[in-house]
Amino acid sequence: MLKGIDPLLHADLLHALASMGHGDDLVIADANFPAASMARRLVRLDGAGAPAALRAVLTLLPLDDFVEHPAAVMAVVGDPARVPEPVRDFQPVLAAAAGRPVTIERLERFAFYDRSRAAFAVVATGDARKYANIILRKGVIAVD
Fold this sequence. Notes:
Elements: H1 11-19, E1 25-29, H2 35-38, E2 42-45, H3 50-57, E3 71-74, H4 85-98, E4 104-107, H5 109-118, E5 121-125, E6 134-137
Parallel strand pairs: 1-5, 2-5, 3-4
Antiparallel strand pairs: 1-6, 3-6
Helix pairs in contact: 3-4
């Protein structure tokens, strides 16, 4: 246990986050997502819901502010305009972490899978709700 670090951020997840570079993608996935077959690097977070995992990750991971959409979700199959509950839960977490509203890109299911396969890592949560998946693009921490 470390002081000031969210307890969901265990050693494997901390290592993955620290290893990422600017522009790398991180997927936070629900329990239904085919994480093991898609991930280049798989980090298990089975006891957490996706919004809690997102909140914990964003305490350390800066969102990319050089792109229009630093976050992407999977569009609902057959109803891409619908915003499912998990995505509604993600929005205030993203805004709080960024200190501003964050627009979320919606990707067709197979486009989401393609981008997930190329992601630096996939964090598999225990969230059983459909569409509790989000891709984050890592930004930079400016010291100037």
